[in-house]
Give the backbone structure.
Amino acid sequence: MTRTRIARHNPPTLHDTPGYHHVTTVEPGRMAYLAGQCPVDRSGTVVGADVPAQIDQATANAALALEAVGASPGDVVRAVIYVVTDDRAALGAAWTRCRASVIADAFTIASTLLGVSMLGYPDQLVEIDLTVALPD
């Protein structure tokens, strides 16, 4: 599978970004769509009482899911980060934490960061949704 980022520094007709690309194209091939990765441990218990701790758990879970399908963070072609907040500074801090995580390369592609009012588990503050172009 061939993955191409259009253009290397983003199209000149669009705004500069803080580390992601506006457009990612993928040639035909196998794809994986990961369920939203939540900040839960193997027993299903939410881990961490704050956004940074929950990002650490969710990205660790995402790394395990990627490994299970033979992929790496560099194979991710779309990322969506959900954070329970209405504070722009908190969203920026969440983005920074994701970009420093064990799957940091997953957030250099077409990415979306959303502040939301609620997620599925009680006390859940973060969820990470990834689409992957599987290696040949």
